[in-house]
Give the backbone structure.
Amino acid sequence: MIQVAVNGYGTIGKRVADAVRAQPDMNVLGVAKTRPNFEAQAALDRGYPLYAAVEERADQFDDAGMEIAGPVEALVEAADVVVDATPSGIGAKNKTLYEEYDTPALYQGGEDADVADVSFNARSNYADAVDADHVRVVSCNTTGLSRVIAPLSETYGIEKVRATLVRRGGDPGQTSRGPINDILPNPVTVPSHHGPDVNTIFPDVDVDTLGLKVPATLMHVHSLNVTLETAVDAADVRDLFAGEDRLFLVSDEFDIDGAGKLKEYAHDVGRPRGDLWENCIWEESVSTEGRDLYCFQAIHQESDVVPENVDAIRAVTGAADAEESVETTNDAMGIGL
Ligand code: NAD
């Protein structure tokens, strides 16, 4: 069993812990939190040993009646791999801790690419992360773009990707984020940082991205235009996408007109926390004009990177090759709508 530590138990960390627990070859050794709150209590209720991320605050857990298993250092030392799911910028600060105990570490997409030796997407560059010590699982948006670019690039070749990313203002629990009533070009400069981030996975793909932020918490929605190297039929692209486990082709019969109904569907099919681990591509939107492909996809920002973290754990520990890992992850989590 691969012994996994999760440092930072928020939106991403708690989902990664549950996905790790579902794997036949992994165990959650413990999770580290900075302070006692509802998530700390939920971690204990789920049976995860709770470690104090900040030693001086360990007493606060005692005061709240929450049992602490030890300091984060002990967790990192004992683990085969640590998943850092702390807020953007904290992962880079934690790097020395992981180096001190010689524990391979995964970082999240909020960190700068140079925190790690490799930026990672299982579908696109799993092999690059095998036996690496520091790997960054790219952001929700970059993950969503990479999953589409990989099959298109392999099958047709890509001349240029243009993507407009309509981004949710914040996650449901992020009460301080916005906008509340506005539509923001964000960043207003073009290209947005997402295009260069895609290039950390596909260095040779020509990609421009534009970003907006809107008053929504549900999902991001991407409007994509990919100029391919050969003319294609939309039906062939739909078949190509249908063959990818982490792409969900939303059929027109489902009558799902937006992110709201997608989330409703996720709850209806019993997904934990209403998560959608797959890119949700509206089948009807997949259209072609000569070499130009167009489509809309929705990306569940809170969860699409979760299976990628699980695969990255197997990559850094050398536990499986890409095909075996992705299949195991998908089976254990129930991925593939
Ligand atoms: P979050 O704020 O929901 O969770 C972070 C957790 O880490 C919180 O519980 C916080 O208390 C804890 N924490 C803070 N400082 C810590 C420290 N020093 N040690 C241990 N724990 C600490 O954040 P999140 O949304 O889960 O984001 C985590 C990372 O994942 C970021 O890099 C983010 O960019 C990336 N990411 C987020 C999303 C998303 O939409 N939420 C999507 C993909 C990637």
